[in-house]
Amino acid sequence: MKKIILPLVILFIAVLGCAKIKELAGGQKGNPDSGSSGGGSSTSGANPREDIIQASKKFIALPAFSAKMDGMGQTAIKSQVDYVAPDRYHISYLGGTGAGMEMIMIGNDSYMKTGGKWTKSQGNSNSAIPTLRDSFTEEGLKTLTDTKFDGNDTVDGTSALVYSYKNVTPKGGFGFNCKMWVGEKTGLPMKIYATYDNGILKEMTVNYDSESKVTIEPPVQ
Length: 221
What we know:
- This protein is α+β, with helices and mostly antiparallel strands.
- The protein is built from 4 helices and 11 strands, in the order H-H-E-E-E-E-E-E-H-H-E-E-E-E-E.
- Strand 5 and strand 6 form a beta hairpin.
- Mean pLDDT is 76; it is low at 1-39 and 126-136.
């Protein structure tokens, strides 16, 4: 079980740790890389840090979302993560490490699907998730640097504002560079691309779906 949990934790670092600094407060008007923010709407690139903060606040307020992830570490990583607030996760490993495996976590309960059969796991594997939220707090935001507005683009035909920044993961001190596409109309993150300076994970692309309905229930065993 421990061998399976390790790649799972790596995936959560990728989808959540870089998926934007979610529970943020930070960034003063006129100084994109310091202080704390009082909140507000997008500045459309005039203040990149403020825009990242606002996108993060909107993202963490979502009741549910899905994320498709393609990355490379020691092996290829290809998976989908579904989330329903406050503590429901469904991870499907689509390729690379653990291909064909699924995992559902609801509160302290975890279920693993291997060989077409669901098994309830012993212990609380979900306990790793709150520690990853360190990256989304004001403390995690202190290492956010080099925030930039990179112009306009589209994601699947939808207009987006593009931002880039550097940060360091609170746990492990892994530095990474991240580019984020934010929906021009919704203000929500649509896509990210991150490269890591050290550690097992080398790069990751995440595409978010905040519109499709997501439900997560315990599997029928």
